[in-house]
Amino acid sequence: MRRIDFVWAWGLTFCLFLILPAYGQDASIEKRQKIMKNNEAAAKALNKAVEEKDYATVELKAKEIAGDAAQIPDLFPKGSTSDKSRAKSEIWEKWDEFTKDAAQLKKTSSELAEAAAAKDATKVKAKFDDLGNACDSCHKPFRAKRKS
After folding, report:
1. Distances from the Cα of 138 to the Cαs of 56, 100, 132, in angstroms?
2. Which CATH superfamily is domain 2-142 in?
3. Long-range contacts of range 134-141, CB-CB < 8 Å, 24 or more positions apart?
């Protein structure tokens, strides 16, 4: 009987080593997709707030994006891609560029928040445009197109 218990224990342990990394990747993918959807909603709210010169909302939403941007590298553990993810393998092949883009997103959104706090309309508009460029600089090389 002891041999059977050992075989079962070994088999269960082996299965866990196969299942847990996949579960961890799925959790990472779900978390980053949630954050990216939040950023998309924040960007839409920012667009409206910039047009309306609603500086309080601009500041708030820009700070949200800055906080999310700081988390981006941690949300992409090596190889965390699947059919559910639009992440390209280039993320891990060009990791330094990817993390630099995330840092630039944080910097730009923080600058937008500062401009909004100062109620500087010209700077808010410029930093909002810079924010769009920061998003594109990462999405274009590192995110696959939507699957039809």
Report:
1. 27, 9, 10
2. Cytochrome c/b562 (1.20.120.10)
3. 134/101, 134/104, 134/105, 134/108, 134/109, 135/39, 135/43, 135/105, 137/101, 137/104, 138/98, 138/101, 138/102, 138/105, 141/88, 141/90, 141/94, 141/97
Residue 18 has pLDDT above 50, yes or no: no
8 A C-beta contact, residue 127 and residue 115: yes
> What global pTM score does this model have?
0.79
Task: Report pLDDT digits (tens) over 36-69.
Answer: 999 999 999 999 999 999 999 999 999 999 999 9
Burial (Cβ within 10 Å: 0-12, 13-18, ≥19) of residue 68: buried
Separation CA 36–CA 22 (nearest Å) = 21
- The label of the residue with tokens 């992409």 reads 76
What distance in Å separates the CA atoms of residue 34 and residue 12, rounded to the nearest whole number?
32
Tokens of 42: 């924040």
